[in-house]
Input
Amino acid sequence: MRHHNVPDMDSTPLTPEFLASQDVVLIATDHSAYDYDFIVQHSSLVLDTRNATKNVTVGREKIFKA
Output
């Protein structure tokens, strides 16, 4: 059986200040619990790999699909 040394991880609240401080916000999975309008509004660049932002209408110029 494989064993992996995974570092401890923690979570950071998605505040406007935190989102604005990031170079890019990566959306790797689509969860209904997230407010994608809020995320796009406060981020400078969003890389959406799951089309989670398909219904976002404001800030589309910041969204890139992967």
Remarks:
- The first strand starts at residue 25 and ends at 27.
- The mean pLDDT is 96.
